[in-house]
Amino acid sequence: MTLAEKLALVAIVTYACVVTSRASPLEPERYFLVEAEPRAQQEDFRLNDDVWPSHYDVEIKPYLEPEGNKAQFTFDGSAKVTVTTQKQDVMQIKLHKSRMEISAWSITRKSDNADIPRQQEMYDAETEILTLPLSTALQANAEYVLSFTYVGNMDDDMHGFYRSYYWSNGEKVWMGSTQFQQTHARRAFPCFDEPKFKATFQLKINHKTQYNAYSNTPITSTTTPEVGRSLTTFGITPTMSSYLLAFIVAPYDVNERNGMGILARPQARNQTDYSLNVGIDLLKALGDWIDYPYSNVPAMTRMYMAAVPDFSAGAMENWGLLTYRETNILYRSDDSTSMQQQRIAAVISHEISHQWFGDLVTCEWWDVTWLNEGFARYFQFYGTALVETAWDLDHQFVVEQLQGVMQMDSLTSTHPMTHPVYTQSQVSGIFDNISYNKGAVTLRMMEHYLGTEKFQTALRAYIKDRAFKTTRPSDLFNVLNRYDPNARAFMEPWTVQSGYPLVTVTSHESGFTLTQKRFLVNEPNHSDQTTWPLPITYATDANGFSNTTPAIHTGRTMEIQMSGASDVKYFILNNQQLGYYRVNYDAILWGKISKALHSEGFGGIHVLNRAQIVDDLFNLARGDVVPYGTALEILEYLKEETEYAPWLAAVNGLTTLSRRIHAEDEKLFAAHILDIFSKAYDTVKFQAPGVSERRVFTYMRQNVLQWACNYGHDECSKAAVAEFDRYHKNPNIKVHPDLRQVVYCEGIRKGSMEHFEFLWNQYLTTNMATEQILILQGLGCASTSELINIMMDAITSPHVRSQDKSNAFTYVINNPYTLPHVSRYLQQNHAIWATAHGSYMNVASAFNNVLARLKSDSERDIISSFIETNKNTLGQAAYDSIKNGLGDYESNKQFTMRNRGEISEFLDKKINGGAATIFANLTMIVGLVMLVLARW
């Protein structure tokens, strides 16, 4: 049986197993469900304040294999919740539960253990609120104990207390782990599952003796309640929100030192040293920075960080038991890339910083998620920089975080950082780039507004003020105002208003006029009158860029008076891009900036401002503010650029532009790409990084080689294929990790079925999750319809874990020649795709991602016809989603046609007008699409 037949059979069998099995009450048929419009009022999703929990006693007994009449992947649970009444005459108690069957419950008065008469409970499956009606009113300010006995389910969707597995000696080893944020603690025990309801927790786990149990706090005792089982009791937690409780039941090993331990499957213990070392350093460095050592919390006598094989998020900040995807914590220098190492350190810094910003001080409700995630994302970069000092993380922050969130925040569909949410889907949706990136960017602006020392002092005071409590933005603003009375006035508008401004600079003899207007990339002529308090800095020569202390301007326009303004070398606003806004200049100023960029040393323009100019030009052209011809002409300076930040900004802009280049202009665009990357390629060379090489130079090489090979650079392609062939012949001598992405991709693109099967076998047999990701990226470069179908079958099979399926699909469709074949596959296998990914909304998402990259009206028509024929199967929500995707296709097409003239004129003049020195034999230089289409 061929690889293709094997994978197709696995996908079909998996689908058949799902759709033919009978669903028990604990295993509903959820695979083909789409989210219905809420029936309940939004306010009904929130609990009232009638009673408040203070302590939970929870005991969990999981069944990772069948035991007697106990079904596999269920658990018995008991919970006692101590609550205090907040008012007189409470006649019912409301709390959360989900995916469990409560067999018994009661309520007793704590003072005398008297039973409180009760009535039949009620449950709303939509809001997941359990209502417990009482026959006798509760007294005000009295303590009561709610007791529950129940059966829960260990799902495989990576939420609640769920099941995961790993392979050991060819056998599946099952384990249990938790993910409670945002609304899934209620799957493990009945609880007041909102962050404001802080309480203490004591957990007991009754588990098979061959397993170990771990939780937020250390173990206080272990007993043997029955043969083959242990009862592990953990210490009482600090006062915390329900979503922060965590536990793992698994035969894990621990690599432990100095109060820090890394938990992992035994085969991965040899991948835990780096995370242990950097974790120890970060825990101390962040505790020192905040002036509140982790050990100041009495219950937190150690920190555990666990690698979980199946994990929906990147990582989770459970107090004292951080959980991670394996790719975000397991590392070996001989098998992981430099960027993977950085991501591991950065994610660890993110989660450790949550121990203060999120765990100790917690957002009161998810409408202000940024008070947790904005701080954690800020320290993800600036905290990591405390211990890994040579990675230029401050430069990376600007392009990845600030410029990254600007894309989303320039759309009308964006939202403010502080934004109302009620339903579970709304809560999940608020965990986006606005809460994370924009939150961090706003904090960075505040740091430079106050100055680093005042900023640090203010945050130390904020943590001490709100320790063990919840927080609202006003709490943060009040502390900041102690150190500057205008701090709130500056920061708050950025948190409550959507979007950001475009500042237009006009020059005149006596200075410069600045005008702000909201930047909406698809609506340049909008009438939105929103303004922001602008942090203004500027430079007219190389020395000016070091000034990052802004003057704040609050009006729509402002004047900067300057004698000899017309004689300055240039005028560049927003030093080191500390302010969250874009800048456009008049023709004279753009001309000066262009001249400086094309001069020796780029005219002394700071590297971050070069990255800013690159990103702004791509987006101002996209938004019809600057002509594409002007933008591309200025960006020709990139031919001499040798720094990572501007090139990363360029790669981001070119990625978007490449998807909108008219199909008939792709040869010219390919030649343009090879030209502007030519010197960068000669600078980085196809070689492994040297021992003393700057980290960001290594990152730049990865981008340059990827783009050069993708667009047919002959030397790059030959070197990559030769390296892949060498590895294929002798797998014991591996490719350098920092070259693997381009080598795997080019090897598969230019290779045969034999090469594909070889790399797929490496995917199945590697012990490194980071290596699996690199292999999936390489396999996604398949360049024939047969291999593309095999790759799609692989994605739907259990061989690619659920957490990796979406990324694997993205790797495939990022290669434009795959799009028609992916579309056909989805049409022919939509039911299998829905099964593998959870619902038909995931089918819609897949089609929409194809449509966002598609340039063919005939392919669009085929998709349109498919959804009309299969409307009932898709369901209304998925059908409507794809209809919106078809509308976006039309908008993209209109954009392409509107801008084609200018773009193609620039490209034609450059390539055919002899203005560029390009690689020999232009007929051989074609875009990736044209290269591989000839093979079909």
Characterization of the model:
With 936 residues, the protein is of the alpha+beta class. An 8-stranded mixed sheet has the order 5-4-8-2-1-11-14-13, with no helix packed on it. Strands 16-17-18-20-19 form a 5-stranded mixed sheet, covered by helices on one side. Strands 28-24-23-30 form a 4-stranded mixed sheet. Helix 13 packs parallel to helix 15. It is globular and about 90 Å long.
- Give the number of DSSP strands: 30
Largest sheet: 8 strands, mixed
Shape: globular
Arithmetic mean pLDDT: 93
Q: Could you say which structural class the secondary elements and strand pairing correspond to? A: alpha+beta
Number of helices: 31
Beginning-to-end CA distance, first to last residue: 24 Å
Helix percentage: 40-55%
What share of the residues does DSSP label as strand, in percent?
Answer: 15-25%
Tell me the strand order in the biggest sheet. 5-4-8-2-1-11-14-13
Over the alpha carbons, how many angstroms does the gyration radius reach?
29 Å
**pLDDT under 50 segments (min length 5)?**
16-36, 914-936
